[in-house]
Structures are given as structure tokens and as C-alpha cells.
Amino acid sequence: MKKSQLVPIAIIALISLAALYFFNRNTTTEDQNDIVSTVKMAPFKVSVTASGELEAKRSKKIMGPSSMRNAQIFETTIQTLVPEGTEVKEGQFVAQLDKTEVANKMADVQSEIDKILTQLEQAKIDTSIEMRSLRDQMTNINFSKEETKLQVELSRYEPEAVIRQKNIEYEKIEREYDQLRVKLSLTQEKNAAKIAEIKASLGQQKTKMKRLQDVSKEFTINAPADGMVIYARGWEGKVSAGSRLRAWDPVVAELPDLTEMISKAYVNEVDISKVSVGQDVEITVDAFPDKVYTGTVKKVANIGEQLRNYDTKVFEVMISVNEQDSILRPAMTTGLDIQISRFDSTMSIPLEAIFKDSIDYVFRKQDRKVVKQEVVTGPANDIDIMILGGLQRNDEVLMTKPENSETIETQYFDKEEKKKLLEELDNKEKARIAALEEKKKTVKDDIEQVKPGQSFIIFN
């Protein structure tokens, strides 16, 4: 072969090697830089997660005095309180409230009683003196009346003018006597009314004293039944020795029935629409992470509330614990996984791999290139999204958009097949909702929300 013929062959070989080099380098760089995920086939569930706190389904409230308001005592201090978790018997001491305020009120009332008793004695003495004076006056006038009457009789042989004068004197004394008798009667009624008024004030103060004495007895709080003492919780935290007990919420502690437990949770307003009565719940307890319990949603609040430590409004959800376990105690923190829907086996990919414009699509690796693949998606959870069509098991999809994403060709999914898949998913969702509605009918709302003034309020 001539030398002139070898030159074009060498040039072609060099160009081929350079193209192969750059192709391989670009492919390697792409493989190294792109983060990929594999389409997996596995059971798929949609759930709402929340944290909660264990409570007893039923408990007896240990209350402070019920008549504090009637005694004009609106708050007091808990001086002593048995340690939380103490097992007590019915009638056993639980707490002692500070009696300083009630003692001060009793001292004030006693002073008022003493003052009224003094007024009563003084009124009786004044009445006695006044009535005695009037009776003496009547006696004296009566004597004068008799004397004048005698003079009238002796003057019957006197001149007519003298007789007339004596008769006038007699009539005058008789009028004075009648007037004094009326005055005596009215004075007696007046003094009786005054004494009755003083006695009424005395009775009011004695009633107030009796009320304070009864309240004072209730300041020593005993257990209404056998059980374990669990401190009550309020807006300011857990009640303890030194806490202020208020008349409008006098709960000191409670005696929970530990055979049946519930978990109170708060679900944010974004997820609450997914939560419904009757849904199954997986429950874990932070203190025993290896144990998993099951539960059922029993109540979902209709109105949200803004609580401390929450950025958004939350809704209260009550969940009953199906299992009975002696290690479960009130106030233990729980992790809740509320089951919204479940699929036995389906394809899914991470949420980050899904991109949207007019369609849902992914960037799928195909041989040594990447294609823009339309997919049919289903429900999603916090991590993955279900794939109904457009991908196959073990396909690899990119987690980020490639740099040349705008130039990558799009492979569309068949519209009729897409419609069919979405209809099947919709039918499954309707069946799930129907089954849940049927289950709701069997769920008994037996969680007792005991508040002050209701049936389980018991005070000593």
C-alpha cells in the first residue's frame, strides 16, 4: 500500500478514537454526576404521621373544693401533693391546700359576728329601757287620771264653770293616756323590727361562717377511689405542689383506669382532611421503641386551634389503643401512623423524581441515553409516589433534571390506557371510602371527655 493511501485511513482512525473518547467521557461524567433511583415493586401505603400522648380512656378526677366560688375564694395554693404514680386507696390523703385565705375570711366573719352580737345586746338593753320608761309614764298618767276623775266627782256641787274645767282636765289626761298607749305599741313594734334585722344580719354571717368551715374541711383532699395518682395538666403545665388551684378549674389529679388507653394527638390543618373516624393506626411508644401497637381513630375535632409550639392550626384526634399492656402509662409520648390507604403491590419512585408541567413525567435512563417519559401517578406519601403506568420495574429514573432537559425527547403515554388506569384507581378509592363509612358505623364513640361539673368529678 502506498504511503499516500495510509494518510486518510490514519485520519479516519484518529477521528473515530476521538469521538469514542469524548462519548465515553460524557457518558461516564453523566453516570457519575446524575443521582438515580430504581423503580421498586412493593406494598404501598399512604399515611399521616403525628405525635401524641397516652391518656386513660376513663379516669376519675380528684377535685379541689367545689364551693370555693360560693365562699368568694377564687384560687389557692397546693401546699402538699403525694408523688405522681403513688398507688392510693379510697379515702387516703392526696393533697393539702393552703388555708390562709379561708382562715382570714373566717376571722373577718367572726369579727363581724362579734360586732353584731354586741349590737344585738345593746339593742335589747335600749329597748328594755325605752319600754320601761313608757310603761312608767302610763302608770303615772293613770294615777293622774284617777285623781282627776275623783275631783270631777267631788266638784259636782261646784259652779258649772268649775265642773266644766274639771271635766276638760279629765278628758285631756285620758287623751294623753290613749296616745301613750299607742306610742308604747308602736315603739314595741319598732324595737322588735330592729332586733329582727340585727338577728338577720347575724344569721347571714353565721351562714357564711358555716360555708367557710365546710370549704375549709374540703381543703384536705382524699382519694375518691383506689388507683394511681396522675397529676392533672393545665395551660401552665403539670399541676404539682406549689401550683395555683383555681375555682373554675379545680382539678388536682386523676385516677386513670389503665386497662384501656387512648392517645391524644394533634394533626396539622394540611393533613386533617385525610383523617377520618374508623381508620387504623400503628402506634409506637417512645419509651419502648421495639413495641408496636394498633389503634383506631375514634374522634376528629371539627374546629382547629392554635397551640403553643405549633406553627399552624391543629386539630385534636383521639385514638384508642387496641392492646392492653401493663407497661403503658399516661403521659407517655407516642408516634402515630394513621393509615389512609394501602395497596398490596405497586410500583413507586421517590417524590423528587417526578416533574410536572402539563403532564407528569420522569427522566428515565434508556440504554446510554436519557428520555423524558410521561407517567401516570397515583397517591403519594411523605417519601414516594405510586406509578400506575409509564415505567417498568427496575427502570432507573433521575432524581434531578439533566442540563439538556429542554432538548430531550418526550415519550407520551397512551391516552386511552391512561384513562383506564385512572378510572381503576378512582374505583378503588370509592371502594375504600365506602368500606370506611361502613366501619364508622361500628366504631363506638366511648371516649369520655370529663370536665369539671360532669359525672366523674369527685371531691372530698
Describe this structure in words.
The structure is a single chain. With 460 residues, the chain is of the alpha+beta class. 38% of the residues lie in helices and 32% in strands. The strands form seven sheets. Strands 2-14-17-16-15-18 form a six-stranded antiparallel β-barrel. Strands 9-13-3-26 form a four-stranded mixed beta sheet, with no helix packed on it. A four-stranded antiparallel beta sheet has the order 7-6-4-12. The longest helix is centred in the middle third of the chain and has 59 residues, at 160-218. Among the domains are: 64-96 and 222-256, RNA polymerase II/Efflux pump adaptor protein, barrel-sandwich hybrid domain (OB fold (Dihydrolipoamide Acetyltransferase, E2P), Beta Barrel), CATH 2.40.50.100; 100-218. Residues 20-32 and 449-460 have low confidence and may be disordered. The protein has helices at 3-33, 100-154, 160-218, 415-442; strands spanning 36-38, 40-56, 59-63, 75-81, 87-88, 93-97, 220-222, 227-228, 230-231, 233-234, 237-238, 244-246, 251-256, 261-268, 280-285, 288-300, 314-321, 333-350, 355-356, 360-366, 369-374, 376-380, 384-389, 396-398, 410-411, 457-459. The protein contains four helices and 26 strands. α2 packs antiparallel against α3.
